[in-house]
Design goal:
The complex is a heterodimer of chains A (431) and B (95). By secondary structure, chain A is α/β, with parallel strands linked by helices. Chain A has 16 helices and 17 strands. Chain A has 3 domains: 204 residues, FAD/NAD(P)-binding domain (3-Layer(bba) Sandwich), CATH 3.50.50; 102 residues, D-Amino Acid Oxidase, Chain A, domain 2 (2-Layer Sandwich), CATH 3.30.9.10; 64 residues, no CATH class. In chain A, strands 1, 2, 7, 8, 9, 10, 16 and 17 form an 8-stranded mixed sheet that branches. In chain A, strands 5-4-12-13-14-11-15 form a 7-stranded mixed sheet. Chain A starts with a strand and ends with a helix. Chain B has one domain: Alpha-Beta Plaits (2-Layer Sandwich). Chain B is built from 4 helices and 6 strands, in the order H-E-E-H-H-E-E-H-E-E. In chain B, a hairpin with a 2-residue loop joins strand 3 and strand 4. In chain B, 40% of the residues are buried. Classes of the chains: A alpha/beta (431), B alpha+beta (95). At the A-B interface, helix 3, strand 11, helix 6, helix 7 and strand 15 of A face helix 1, helix 4 and strand 6 of B. Chain B: Pfam families: Fer4_ETF_QO (PF05187). Chain B: Keywords: Electron transport, Iron, Iron-sulfur, Metal-binding, Nitrogen fixation, Transport. Chain B: GO terms for molecular function: iron ion binding; iron-sulfur cluster binding.
């Protein structure tokens, strides 16, 4: 006899677990399916988890969750071959309650979070793949799993199955992603003594630093490198649009090696020991790529719904909030015993009204713009480095002469106009 | 010097619980042979799962990170991509 639940959530990442947690807390009978050996076994993240959206679900989670370091400094490096212009903000307010964000290791964090959902009453079943949605009369009524007699039924199914979201694709909610809608990130975890980390990154105990690296980290192609401090490891990685790797015929692990050995980066990681290598896709299509997120008996949350703000490296926070909003909608739908699309579509409206919809809308054309016009990364970052070097090198030339040299370095009048136009356009897609 | 420079060394750092059968299938080797001079999957796959062997594509699915790039990036939609059976495949321990 087939099992029947109020709700099945597919995928125990931040989106699915947030949804299951909220549902279970409200007394909804929820099954949380995970294909990995444990939650987090299939998940990869550079490592920044934002406090606010997690606390909307579990207040003061930071007192017990397995976190690495609260981030007190965020640096942004505009990197050239042998130089970098760095912008940074360090603030001690980020190092105390209520905190801004933390580095985490996802295999540990996701297990902890899923356990919290189980404490609330969710049923977690791992090592189980949901291979397809069961659709009857135009309505999702359950999922087919890869277990024997694996059909499971529910009033509503939440697809939190990650960036590949084969289930939403099966339902026709989105076509296959294009290579310019996903970024391929590779990353290594490097073991390094805690004290060495604190010395190198100018940190006290229980303080962390993140560095985002633009420009030569990706050899000029659109993407970023990153270097984050954990307790006694570093996370170093590089992500570029898959389309960029294809176009430039670059092996992602060789790009990672390039970043690790870059003279601006190498001193940070010298003497560390790689302990894990990871690769994952990040949905970076943005606003225009958000698929249909609500149907009859089904909702889509997190990466599966392309909810990532690549410009601000936010994703897991959007995942959690989308899971929470999906849960709110399901609780309402359950009260009214109506799981139709018109009812569940309230989730989409909540999503669009929230910071998620607003922020994705704000940057809706940014990725596409910077992909279409490679000069920002290829030319303007090196130019900025040359100008900075010129201005701060004391060589007897007057500052007026130096400004003239920098001005000449910008190229012909035509090229200067182009630069001005590009800056205007960049402002337009970012504002 | 830094260790784990090559992809083989990197893959040694990862735990896999490989299934006995592949979850990745190249549908038609002939398409790779005749229509795909770049064999681009052999370049962008982050685990070097795909290796061209003169007339056929060798698929080392045991080392797959399950990222999905090959399914999306194959210019001829010539790769059938599924998840490994529940509990199988890559097992990330940290990140």
């Amino acid at each position: 006899m087939p099992e029947k639940f109020d709700c099945i959530v597919v995928g125990a990442g931040p989106a699915g677990t947030a949804c299951a947690y909220e549902l279970a807390k409200a007394g909804v009978n929820v099954l949380l399916l995970e294909r990995g050996e444990y939650p987090g076994a299939k998940n990869v993240m550079g490592g920044v988890l934002y406090r606010k959206m997690m606390e909307d679900i579990i207040p003061e989670f930071y007192k017990e969750a397995p976190l690495e370091r609260p981030i007190v400094e965020q640096r942004f490096m505009m990197m050239d071959k042998e130089s970098a212009v760095t912008f940074s903000y360090k603030g001690l307010e980020w190092g105390r309650e209520p905190y801004n964000n933390f580095t985490v290791l996802r295999a540990k964090f996701d297990q902890w979070f899923a356990e919290k959902a189980v404490e609330q009453g969710a049923l977690l079943v791992c090592e189980t793949v949901a291979v397809e949605c069961i659709v009857e009369n135009g309505r999702v009524v359950g999922v087919r799993t890869d277990r024997p007699d694996g059909d499971i039924y529910a009033d509503v199914v939440v697809l939190a199955d990650g960036v590949n979201s084969l289930l939403a694709k099966q339902l026709g909610f989105h076509r296959e992603w294009r290579p310019d809608e996903v970024a391929l990130a590779t990353m290594e975890i490097l073991k390094l003594d805690k004290n060495v980390i604190e010395d190198r990154f100018n940190l006290e105990a229980n303080q962390g630093c993140t560095i985002e690296i633009f420009g030569d980290a990706t050899k000029g192609i659109l993407g970023t490198g990153f270097l984050y401090t954990n307790k006694d490891t570093l996370s170093i990685g590089v992500g570029t649009l898959l389309s960029g790797l294809i176009k430039h015929k670059i092996k992602p692990y060789e790009l990672l090696e390039y970043v690790k050995n870059h003279p601006m980066i190498r001193p940070y990681i010298q003497g560390s020991e790689p302990v894990e290598y990871l690769a994952h896709l990040i949905p970076e299509g943005g606003y225009h790529s958000i698929p249909k997120v609500a149907g009859n008996g089904v909702l889509v949350v997190g990466d599966a719904a392309q909810l990532v703000n690549a410009i601000h490296r936010e994703g897991s926070n959007m995942a959690m909030t989308s899971g929470r909003l999906a849960a709110e909608t399901i609780i309402m739908a359950k009260e009214q015993k109506d799981f139709s699309e018109s009812m569940l579509d309230q989730y989409r409206m909540k999503l669009m009204e929230s910071f998620i919809g607003q922020d994705l809308k704000k940057y809706k054309d940014a990725t596409h713009h910077f992909e279409s016009f490679p000069q920002y990364f290829e030319q303007y970052i090196p130019m900025l480095n040359r100008a900075t070097s010129q201005m701060f090198t004391v060589d007897g030339a007057s500052k007026w002469e130096k400004q003239k040299k920098i001005w000449r370095d910008l190229g012909s009048t035509k090229q200067k106009f182009k630069l001005a136009r590009d800056m205007m356009k960049a402002w337009k897609v970012m504002k | 010097m830094m260790k784990a420079q090559t992809i083989e060394e990197k893959q040694y750092l990862v735990r896999f619980n490989a299934d006995t059968k592949s979850h990745l299938h190249v549908l038609d080797d002939n398409i790779c042979l005749t229509k795909c001079p770049d064999k681009i999957c052999t370049i962008f796959c982050p685990a070097a799962v795909y290796k061209w062997e003169e007339v056929r594509m060798h698929v080392g699915y045991e080392g797959c990170h399950e990222c999905g790039s090959c399914r999306i990036g194959c210019p001829h939609e010539n790769i059938r991509w599924e998840y490994p059976r529940g509990g199988h495949g890559i097992v990330f321990r940290l990140g």
